[in-house]
Write a structure and sequence with these properties.
By secondary structure, this protein is an all-alpha fold. The protein has 14 helices and no strands. Helix 4 packs antiparallel against helix 12, helix 5 packs antiparallel against helix 9 and helix 10 runs antiparallel to helix 13. The longest helix has 32 residues. The chain starts with 7 loop residues before the first helix and ends in a 5-residue tail after the last helix.
Length: 409
Amino acid sequence: MRQTLWTKNFTLVTLATTLGAVGGIAGSFALSFLVFDETGSTLASALILAIQLVPYFVIPLFAAPWMDRMPRKPFLVGGDVLNGILYGAAGLYLMFWDFHYLGYLSFSLLLASLSAFDELAYNCIYPKLIPSGLEEKGYAVSATLYPVLKVIMTPVAAVLLDTVGVAWILLIQAGLSLLAAGVESHIQLVEHVEKGGARFSLALWWGDIREAARYLKQEKGLRSIYSYMAVTNGVASGYSPLLVAFFRTMPGMSAFLYGLFSVAEFVGRSLGGVVQYRVRIPDEKKYGFAFFVYQFYEVMDMCLLWLPYPLMLLNRASAGFLGVNSATMRQAAVQRYLPEGLRARINAFESMCIMAASSLCSLGMGALGEVLDVRVCVTLGAAFTLVVCWLTIWKNRAQVRQVYQPGRD
């Protein structure tokens, strides 16, 4: 009998992810323009991004060892329930009261703290919902899903922003989060619970942290991948307020064109995901392909905002097409490479690295945007990331290749 990827559990988690992503894309789009419209400052927008990332650095450090010993499904379901309640409250607030920057900073910190738990649980439970041997196909679906929804929802969010406003968008997001929680509750999964999970203590936590640290100390390939991912994702997050400022202030640009600009990359990612689902890259070529894509992506970022608008769209579509193939391949390889008993802790380490870099880079890029042309800022950030790629992925290529191709001499 032919093995299928689309089991009941995989279908349910994909449906729940779809519901959450639809609301999240619309809400994030609306809030990014709300903050810039209210403050008129790229630094103020960047500060929002930076404070949202702080819990992603702190919380996994304390939660991951516990999560490695406990079922992850309750975290997943409960997180979406609370998410829906909080976004519903935010939507109702904006219906009756004006935007308050400091209040929104505090609210963002609360939401991010909740999301940090939810993301950690999702990253740990998702590999268990993919049938054995179909990991790359599973991650291809995951990587394609968000781009497809981005293509659909970004223009819709731009229209909703001008017609119904931010408050109603947040209320819609709240309803979709609650619906996603209902879908996730039907996932049937037997999760291994470590002995001692119920009597978790500070000494046990410290022992688990040291165990993960010892493992990573021996894994130069993983450390190289995580280091580059932290920098490239961190710098990319710093582009967000700069791109909003560019499309809001540059003559001839608009929020709608920003929506199309974003859609172009995700069209490329969608097509790339379809290719990844259908075509398997041979193990011996995975490292070379990944390294090529990393360099290509940074070069595309360096020239992005200097191009005429049609070529900007082509730039993003090309980068998205190659990027999703590389990301899917990397995710499947890394999760397959990690021991099950250490997965939450090592995933938490990656998340902490990325979020710490994202916080610093968001503030740094936002501050540069106050004194330099935003196009110069993006070019400098991409050039820096390209150098980091050579110092990690290329310099330690033998060890990185082992992650993509375990057992290779």
